[in-house]
Amino acid sequence: MLLDVQGVSTGYGRLTVVRDASLTVDAGEIVAVVGSNGVGKTTLLKGITRSLPITAGRVVLDGIDITGTKPNQLAGLGLGYVPQVGSTFPDLTVMENLLVSVRGSLSTARERCSRLLARFPELERRRDQAASTLSGGERQMLAIASALLSSPRLLVLDEPTTGLAPLVVQQRIDDIRRLRDEDGAGVLWVIEEHPRICLPAVDRVYFLSDGTVSAPMRPADLLEEGVLEELFFGVRA
Ligand SMILES: Nc1ncnc2c1ncn2[C@@H]1O[C@H](COP(=O)(O)OP(=O)(O)OP(=O)(O)O)[C@@H](O)[C@H]1O
Ligand SMILES: [Mg+2]
Asked: Model confidence over 7-52: pLDDT tens digits?
C-alpha cells in the first residue's frame, strides 16, 4: 500500500476540522475525495502532507510512518503535493519555476526541465513567460509539472480542475491518467467541481462530509442518477 491514512484528526489550533479519517491509495491507483465547499477536504490534505499538526492517528507512506515528518522532507520520500492555491512563483518564468524544484547542476536541471516540458506543450510555448501571465489552468499545470520533477510515487492534488473550462478539465484528467498509467504513480485527488467529468477517470472515491470520511465507494455508484445530489444536498432528485 502506498498511502495508509489511519484514523487521522487534524485542524487549526483547538478547532478540529477532520476527525478520525482513514483512507488508502495503492500504487497505480487514482483515488478521489469529494465533498462540498468547506467540509474539510483541503484540511485533510494538509494533515496528510504534514503541513497541519495531527492530533490523532497516523500517516504511513510506503511503509514509512510520516506522522512526525516535516513537509519539506516529503518530496525526498516520494510525495508530491499540489495545493489548492499559490504553489507557483508569479515573478519567475515557467522555466525558472521548474528549475527551483530540481537539485543538481544547472545543466542537468535544465535538461530535466526541458524533457518534462515536452510533455506539456502549452507550457513549453510559454517557457520564458512570467508565471503571473499564465491562465489559471496553465498555472495549475505548471504546479503539477513542478511537483513531477521530484518523480513522486504519490501525487496529492487539491482541486486541479476547479475554474477550468470543460475542454481543459479533460486535458488535466488525461495528464493525471498518464501519471498512473505511464509512471505507475498513485494519485490522491480532491474533486469539488465537475464531478461528472472527473469521476469516470477515478478508481475509488471517498466522500467527505462534515470532517468525516466515508467508506470507499465505486465511482460508478456515485454517478448513478440522483446519488451525487443526495450526497451533496441531502435531497433525492
Ligand atoms: N487557517 C484556518 N484557520 C481556521 N479555520 C480554517 C482555516 N482554514 C480553513 N478553516 C476552516 O476549516 C473548514 C474546512 O476548510 P477546508 O479549506 O478544509 O474546506 P474544503 O473542503 O477544502 O473547501 P473548498 O471546497 O471550498 O476548498 C472550514 O470551516 C474553514 O473555515
Ligand atoms: Mg479546499
From this structure: 999 999 999 999 999 999 999 999 999 998 899 999 999 999 999 9
24 lines ligand 1 (CB under 6 A): no
* Ligand 1 proximity of 43 Cβ (cutoff 6 Å): yes
Has this prediction a pTM greater than 0.90?
yes
Average pLDDT over residues 109-114: 93
Q: If you measure from the C-alpha of residue 36 to the centroid of ligand 1, how many angstroms do you get, rounded to a whole number?
A: 11
**173-219 pLDDT, tens digit each:** 988 998 899 888 999 999 988 899 999 999 999 999 989 999 999 99
Please list the alpha-helical segments (H only) found in the chain.
41-48, 94-99, 106-117, 121-124, 136-148, 166-183, 195-198, 219-222, 227-233
17 C-beta closer than 6 A to ligand 1: yes
Q: What are phi and psi of 156, to 5 degrees?
A: -110, 120
- Report, in angstroms and rounded to the nearest whole number, the Rg of the chain calculated over CA atoms: 18
Check if 19 has its Cβ closer than 6 Å to any atom of ligand 1: no
Residue whose Cα lies nearest atom 16 of ligand 1: it is: 40
CA 175 to ligand 1 center in whole angstroms: 27
Closest atom of ligand 1 to CA, residue 159 = 27
Query: Domain locations in the chain?
Result: 1-78+207-237, 88-149
Q: In this structure, which CATH number among 2.60.120.260, 3.40.1000.70, 3.40.50.300, 3.40.640.10 belongs to the domain 1-78+207-237?
A: 3.40.50.300
DSSP state of 130: B
